[in-house]
Specification:
The protein is an alpha+beta fold and 223 residues long. It is built from 7 helices and 6 strands; from the N terminus they run ααββααβαβαββα.
Length: 223
């Protein structure tokens, strides 16, 4: 590199460092703004025009983020309202037959789920395929948490669903987080992306708890 080029490069670096260390320099000397220009696709634009454009872009991004936050808040509010409705319905159930019929129907309608069913160990048929499917389901729910996936084995899918389901959430029905599983609630969707294994399960776990409490209340006593 020639000495003149090195001197010119160092000089630009010094100027850049000075401006970085003194961001208020243009407030102290506003006349400098009239002498500065930046090239863009329109030809030559003043620094003020470029700054205005950058501020407008940031404002657009902030508005977009705000809209996304509002949308998420509205969706969460709708989910909460739907849960409240379903829970109120469960409180009103007076027998197991009503629960078995109306509970899945309420979930399908409120949450637009393609197929909903639940199984208890007593209700699973004696066919080896069904009993094996239920055992495999319990094994996968060993952590007492709901599990979502779009690659469930056919033994599980055939046990809970009668239509073509491409993703499903399986939810243990319990009276508390450490109690025995009373049954398994299955939510199925034809959309393979609705119940993927990276989906949060807080709402589903809450649903499993509330439905488990209702199921325990309605099941005949073994005494």
């Amino acid at each position: 590199m020639k000495p003149a080029e090195r001197k010119d490069q160092i000089s630009k670096q010094d100027v850049a460092a000075f401006l970085s260390d003194n961001p208020s320099i243009f407030q102290q000397h506003p006349e400098l703004l009239e002498l500065i220009s930046l090239s863009d696709s329109r030809g030559t634009a003043s620094l003020i025009e470029r700054q205005v454009a950058m501020l407008n872009e940031r404002l657009r991004q902030h508005k977009s983020q705000h809209s996304q936050f509002v949308q998420v808040a509205r969706e969460n509010e709708q989910i909460s309202d739907n849960f409240t409705h379903v829970i109120c319905q469960m409180i009103g159930f007076t027998n197991l037959s009503e629960f078995a019929t109306e509970f899945p129907k309420e979930l399908r309608n409120k949450f637009e789920i393609d197929e909903v069913s639940f199984k208890t160990a007593q209700a699973v048929s004696r066919k080896p395929s069904d009993s094996n499917g239920y055992t495999e389901t319990l094994r996968r729910l060993i952590n007492n948490r709901a599990v979502c996936d779009n690659r469930w084995p056919s033994t599980i899918m055939n046990l809970f669903f009668s239509t073509d389901i491409n993703s499903a959430a399986l939810v243990p029905m319990r009276t508390n987080s450490s109690s025995e599983t009373l049954g398994v609630l299955a939510l199925g969707s034809r959309d393979p992306e609705r119940y993927t294994n990276d989906l949060g399960t807080a709402h589903l776990d809450r649903l499993g708890l509330m439905s488990g409490i209702c199921l325990a209340r309605l099941q005949p006593s073994s005494v």
